[in-house]
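Our collaborator T.R. sent over the components below with a one-line note: 'Predict the complex.' Nothing else. No constraints on interfaces, no templates requested, no preferences about which chain binds where. So this is a plain run: every listed entity goes in together, and whatever single assembly comes back becomes the starting point for the next discussion.
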Amino acid sequence: MKKILVTGASGFVGSRFVERWRNEYVMLTPTHAELDVTDAVQVERYIVENAPLVVVHLAAISNTGYCEQNPDESYRVNVESVCNLAAACARNGVKLVFFSSDQVYNGNYESGPLSEDVEVCPETVYGKHKLEAEQRALELCPTAVALRASWMYDVERYGMPVHQNFVLAIEKAIKERSPLVYPVREHRGITWVRDVVEFLPATFSIEGGVYNYGAGCTMDTYETACCYCEMLVGLQSGPLLQPDYARYPEHERNLSMSTDKIFRASGGRVCFGSTMDGLRIFADINGLCR
Ligand SMILES: NC(=O)c1ccc[n+]([C@@H]2O[C@H](COP(=O)([O-])OP(=O)(O)OC[C@H]3O[C@@H](n4cnc5c(N)ncnc54)[C@H](OP(=O)(O)O)[C@@H]3O)[C@@H](O)[C@H]2O)c1
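Returned assembly:
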């Protein structure tokens, strides 16, 4: 069985990845205390001593608001750790797969699904740091794979951690009958983490580079919320959701991604559907549909 080092294995994506694939791979899952990825010496030593074939680097500060408030810490974890792993992987012939984010597109003005080759100019600390991490990691380790993930969701399961996310916010609003406001001038893919985890091994053998990696999006965020809510509670969803026309006044926020590149590179094995398809399957499997 292939040996894989998973950083951030206690996190939202990491815990689900390990749970899904632990019988197919030998998983090395050091905790933050056992391997601090911001320490280049520790990273190099760990890779030399344990000789994984692949590193799935998920350790990060994923809270965008926290990064905005704590840019130095964000830089250390979201940029420098990726460089540490990229350098160690290049030196030791290890395949590196790490997570970037659709937030690299948050300064883009054009509409429609964005491809990896559009020029990007992120406006937030998190987006800027994710972009710098991609660029520097690929310079250090050209075989590395950077996956631009979109906003992910799941419910809490088997004690695995879950962040506040789209489906939990709607579930809470329905339960408490407290209205939610969603922007109309925003397009973004929202992805069930199950798909993200399911497709990951197919990225271990693709060529190095940057890849969009998440569900497609044809609706604005308010429309997506309305459709999902209607699936759960029918027409009563009306008063629960309110459109926000004022948010993003300068230009529409478009984070929707085309995944053609990774579909081709993986020979069709990485195959994300639309955000709404994902939500429909998620609600169905979890017995949430009315
Ligand atoms: N969640 C999303 O919706 C989303 C969307 C787009 C992209 N992403 C990206 O996807 C990746 C995984 O995100 P996630 O949501 O799974 O993150 P998460 O739940 O916040 O987990 C982050 C993990 O990183 C570990 N960590 C933090 N600093 C560390 C350090 N210095 N050394 C070692 N481990 C450290 C944490 O361990 P401790 O808690 O013990 O510190 C935790 O296990 C990240 O790159 C994130 O930016 C996430």
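Summary for T.R.: The chain has a mean pLDDT of 95.
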